[in-house]
Amino acid sequence: MAISSTESFLAVLKKSNLLTAEQLERARNAAKGIDDAETLARTLARDDLLSRWQAGQLLAGRSSFFLGKYKLIELLGRGGMGGVFLGEHTTMNRRVALKIVSKEVGKDPASLERFISEARAIATLDHPNIVQAYSIDNEGDRYYIVMEYVEGRDLKEIVETDGPLDFALAADCIRQACDGLAHAHGRGMIHCDIKPSNLMVNQQGVVKILDMGLARLPGADDPAGAKEDRVLGTVDYLPPEHAMESHDFDHRADIYSLGCTLYFLLTGRPPFAEGTLHERIVKHQTQKPPSIVDHRPDTPDDLVEICQKMMAKDPDDRFGSAEEIGRLLAGWRPPRRKLVRATPLPAVDKNGVLAGVDASGSALSAKSADDATDGLLAEDRRRHVIMLAAAGALLAVVLIAGTIVALMVLSSAGKQNEITRTETQDEPADEEPVAPPKEDKKEVFSATPQIVGDTKPPDTPPAEKPSAEKSPSAKPQAEKKPPSAKPPSAKPQAETKPPPKKPPPKKPPKKVEPFRGFAKAVELPKLGGKRLVLGQIHAAPDATVPDATVIVKLVGGEAAIGAKERFLTKRRNTDDGKPGWLVQYELDKSRNGSKQTDVARLLFDKGQLMFQWLNETAAVPADHLRNCMLEINAAGKTPWVQLA
Questions:
Q1: 173 Cβ partners below 8 Å, 6+ apart?
Q2: Coil, strand, or helix at residue 590?
Q3: Rounded to an integer, what distance in angstroms lies between the CA atom of residue 534 and that of residue 518?
Q4: Percent of the chain scored above 90 by pLDDT?
Q5: Average pLDDT in the 340-346 region?
Q6: How far is Cα 479 from Cα 431, in angstroms, rounded to an integer?
Q7: pTM reported for the whole predicted model
Q8: Mean of pLDDT values over 181-194
Q9: What single string gives the DSSP state of each residue in 312-363?
Q10: Helix (H) or strand (E) holding 52
Q11: Most-buried pick from 49, 193, 294, 369 (CB within 10 A)?
Q12: CA 341, CA 329: separation in Å to the nearest integer?
């Protein structure tokens, strides 16, 4: 019954015993001038007299907030087995987390016995990276586990708020989780629900594994509702073997989920973030996730390799234990970056006097400061002497090398001059002799070139006044020969033969898509309707696939309905030997065994795959089959067909 008036709200508040007498009087004073209960509830929550959850429960007319010795303060989370509440011990004033299981578990003797045995095993875990379970208790038919309360933020909230983690921080978080899981695995416990929201980081930076209340012992059946919570609530971190065979997995399933968590910490998204629920389940079983480098190119290669091995599809390809991963990550360090270190300058006071500081940070005495100054100056002098000596040695090497090169050049030049003089003496005497210069006059050379064959001498330019500087001696230019009137005879080109004709390329054989025309999703007929052709499978342009090579599997049957219910696919050929498959609905009745009911039939005849409901479908929830998918294997292809 919803509360609307302030008088009714105060009456329910008094009945709840949440407040002391003094606090209740403060609530009555706050109610003065307030007309409605909702405004009063908000006011008391703002004044920290009530939590927001308590205020909402009081507005709904609920007044029960105590469970044994604990007062319920806030709802922290809810799952298939029940809810987790923040509680406070009424005597010790110590805050704890209370895992309260649902009433259905408390009323079923078999489920209750299984829950208590597993809770006792969880309570034996004692590790700094696991939230500790203190005790198991009950209030009537409500059973609950008292656990350590961790104040902090989980990794999912941290990444969604602050973005992907630093490489070293992500590796350290996973290392701590591995240490906790190694402790649990060593005692035969498998968590079954590792994900970022179940890894809490407290205010000291310690990672705590939450929700060990959902853990199970190998070979034990799932409590009522727990299986549905794990499958439907944690698809983004679900191991392939957990989805296919819920009772056939070991501690390596936790390693796969932890690898998906590392992927999330590095990229900010789960490995398969797109698609429907069943599409993501199938991707975990059949596809490799996008590379971490695609989302974060600077990720170190060795960290990528660790994550990929943790997420291997086959458990045998993963790390053998969480302890092995923990040791590997404990020694992992990000690549070092090259840093340029600067030498700090000595401190100087306002008077320009060097002030020394000892190792503890306190000022030295005047004498100590002088000693420090002398030490620094002496160190500088030594450094300068070394640098000058190195520079002098380098300069000497350069000078010696330069001298050697110069001597080699001069020697080469002398030899060249000797050769030139020899060639000059051997030249023929038919050249025109150069007239000796007149006395007291400098020789003037003409810059006008002469052309061989001219009979008229060139005009003599007017005499110029001698320059103050001596002009450099110009070397006579080489005589230029006139171009020949006849062009060089061109060689006849060789006759080119046409290339031989190549035969036309053979056309490649026409590729056949075996599932052309197959829809990615089909809408099943109404219950009891006619047979539906799902599609035609082709092996050649005019041929069909051999019947014996077709395999059909149902995917998602474990999660299509809920706990203790599922769909199965069994091979059942027709009377004439044509391949066929029966789809059965299975209800697990625990002690009395399971019961199967035929729901539908899949037939393959003359290349056509057909679906047909059976008559027994009226008595079972067969319509949930629309939540599943079909995996068809034929002609080397494996398409998926969504049932709708």
A1: 155, 165, 199, 201, 207, 265
A2: helix
A3: 7
A4: 29
A5: 53
A6: 13
A7: 0.51
A8: 91
A9: -SSGGGS-S-HHHHHHHHHT--PPPPP--PPPPPPPB-TTS-B--B-TTSPB
A10: helix 52-59
A11: 193
A12: 29
